[in-house]
Amino acid sequence: MTTSAAEKQTKTLASSAPPLGPPQIKLIIGGLIVTGVLLVYLMASQEAMHPLLLIIGLLLGYTLFHARFGFTSAFRRLMAVGNGQALRSHMVMLAVAVTLFAPILAFGLSFFDVEVAGYVSPVGVSLLVGAFMFGIGMQLGGGCASGTLYAVGGGRSVMFITLFFFIVGSTIGAYHLPFWTEEMPAAEPISLATTTGWGYGGAWAASIILFGLIAWITLVVERRRNAPRMADVPTESGIKRVFRGAWPLVIAAVVLAVLNALTLMTRGEPWGVTSALALWGSKGAEVIGFDPASWGYWQGESAQALQQSIFADTTTVLNFGVILGAFLASAAGGLFKLSKITKGNAAASVIGGLLMGYGARLAFGCNIGAYFGGIASFSMHGYIWGVVAMAGTFLALFLRPLFGLSVPKPKDSFC
């Protein structure tokens, strides 16, 4: 039986990834200078963990950009055309993460003698509403939390709009959070390791089985829907591939899991993104006359963060590292170039950023803090976040065309 030309064209998802160019030496030098200055500043003014976290952030951003490792695109491709390649790489990432997190959490392993704890959060209305909003927002905004940061570093202009309104949404969410957590119904946090009595060994085994099941389901969906495969992204060969071009998703998945475990051992909690955005926005609100110190969100232990430099905040340091790492990776590949902004994608970025920022606060995290960090910490809320965010993605598929965004065959390789 022969395959028609039209059928062949459906076998691969289109990619808008531009070809590699010569290394942008001036940009690389500039990025290294900024990184070096920030590193020296952190060494002189902050705790010993902060410079290490900047380096970890750099490696996170470098990895995310090189692999075009997507959370937003992974959800969208599965829901739109049934392609589960990227989601299977998530399962690899999570499998490696729980394998590393289990002994770290069980024995309290750390580099700086800090108390180690995973992200285990309540399950309730706040989580459901927040994750659903985030799922819609990341499809309209063009990227998730980590994707927004590395796309900004890579020069995707519209993502600066997404990031700004992500910060605004996070700030409003911080202001409203006491209502959602105190007035809305919620169950106590559920840990597969401690709440169930399975221990970390049992929770690890259950997690691995579940990841395998999810990966198998994506394969079944692909076969039934005859899903197209993801297009290749331009890359170098041999050792040059480390610095220029695309990395295999599986390799990136392992690297991200290892870096998240190192983050846990360095600062005592997993990788996160959005708490820093709420901090930046609250400080900005303070400048223009608001009083965020009176908000319930900034009471107790959180109050100190509002009074200190943003660079005392470890999540801020990680975020700047991700942006710088992606910038260096894009410049090394000759790919840094500010992209065109249209009315459609600008409007989508405004709405998407607001939904993601607000949703992340309600859901106790984003695709990194809740989904990646929560599941790696054996928290039930991480799994629920993923399912509900997928539902938000499904709805967003009908909203994207209103802004001129592609469906059902995503052409953007960004997260």
Automatic annotation (TrEMBL):
Domain of life from the UniProt record: Bacteria
Transmembrane segments: 25-44, 50-71, 92-112, 124-151, 158-177, 197-221, 242-262, 317-336, 348-371, 383-403
A GO CC annotation given for this chain: plasma membrane
Membrane topology field: Multi-pass membrane protein
Intracellular or extracellular location(s): Cell inner membrane
Keywords associated with the record: Cell inner membrane, Cell membrane, Membrane, Transmembrane, Transmembrane helix, Transport
UniProt-listed Pfam families: Sulf_transp
Keyword Transcription regulation: no
Family: Belongs to the TsuA/YedE (TC 9.B.102) family.
The protein, known as: Uncharacterized protein
Organism: Salisediminibacterium halotolerans
